[in-house]
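Re: duplicated header lines in exported structure tokens

Our pipeline writes sequence and tokens for each protein into one text file. With two proteins the header for the second block appears twice in some exports. Here is an export where it did not happen, for reference. First protein block:
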Amino acid sequence: MPSPTRDAQVIDTAIRLLVLGGFGLIALHLMAPLFGLMLWAVILAVAVYPVHAWLAKRLGGRETLSAVLLTLAGLAITLGPVAVMAAQVIEAGTRAMTALQEGHLRLPDPAMIERIPLVGMRLAEAWRTIGGTLQALVAQMGPVLLATGRLVLAKAAGVGIALAMLSVSVVIMGLLFRPGPALVAQARRFANRIFAPHGAGFVDLAGATVRNVSRGVIGVAAIQALAAGIIMVVFGVPLAGPLTLAALFLGIIQIGPGPVLIPVIIWAWLQMGTVLAILFTVVMLPVMVVDNVLRPLLMARGLKTPMLVILVGVLGGMLAYGLVGLFIGPVILAVFYELVTAWVAAGETAEAREAPAEAPGDA
């Protein structure tokens, strides 16, 4: 029969756990509306912190000034080029919807396609064959396309809200730079309580994975999109802003900018002179494939986790959780991979220690 002292200890522990659980539930409830903002702020802070440390050192150790400058730069990027490109996408979609509604939407003239070298005549002939059917299909599907377009534009209208939320995350990111080292130390202590003795290593692994994914996925996609956008503006390609944003999005989700840039190259052969079209193609092709070289180098830098694990985490996280899954997915898979590796290594070590002790008995 349990002693009264033991019963009192059980009751005391239960009350403590109940109170602690209640506080934890209330805290989670209070943080739930801000979870997305805080998660993005932490991801941004982890990704940008090396830049903050470098800039603060160049500014004579003035961390506050470095945080303010990086915050202003982030807000300028968020509310500047990204907002302009998003507005151009909405404007282009609105024009297309108006043309479809008024019956002014027409398929391109097949005569334009004939200018494409080598295959132009065959493509134009095929286009004339199916062009009438496509035009009739567009006319017949007009109401469905209009309803779908309105839904897409309604979703696109939420881009402004998303940009505002991202701007708030950028501000929170700036506020996290100063207490960053102390917060990381607390995270390591907490992780050690759960995953001792590897917890601190897992926190460092998570930070390195976020930074590598930022460089290898977001950074490479941004470089590609920026280079493609500059080239399109220089060569006078219409709708350069929406096309750049589409290339950025496709690069982030690991499809690559090819589905955007290949049609642009074809358009260049239709609308530009031969010399300009050749020059445009020669300049644009390296931009289209540079991610195949840069991404593996940047994502694997400084990590012992296999590249395949990181890529699966990026793609799986993107499909499961959207854009934020780009960072959550590889972090979870990388930590899980290291946990399994440590567990297997610990088992092999234990077997190796027991083997010499069993050997004399076996003899």
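Second protein block, exported in the same file:
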Amino acid sequence: MSLKEAEEMRGRKKGRRSSAGIVEIVVLIAVPVLCHYLIPVMIVIAPPYSYTGAVVMLAGLGFMMWAARVFGLAGTGFRLREGGSVLVTSGPFRYSRNPMYLGMLIWLIGFAVLLGSLVVFVFPVLFFLLAESLLIPQEERRMEQMFGERFTGYRRRVRRWL
């Protein structure tokens, strides 16, 4: 493959990542906000108590950033499809095999608390079910293929979520 072909391929992948990022933002932020206003089932956490959701959101974001930083320091990315090459077991990975998903779940719970309406609490539940039943098992199969017994031992030592 020529240098030009490699650069073109990288550009196409980057474009796909950008569009995937937009879809994630829409699903994780815009849809819950729309549901909050269009389907006002019940406010379960009212201001000023709902403002604690912002603190929870920051905690989730901080956990994700910590995991991303540990990935970066290890010289690998957190998207397994892009060829994660190192089994990372330090930092937040000592407590959770999936700190990125855990951080996102914490963020979504905080967002639901911040908005305060019952309908928005459906989104963290849906995210958890999707991650637990589809995303994580698929990634763990791939990790087991890539890292073999090292991953199996890590999986025995560290819980999936916490």
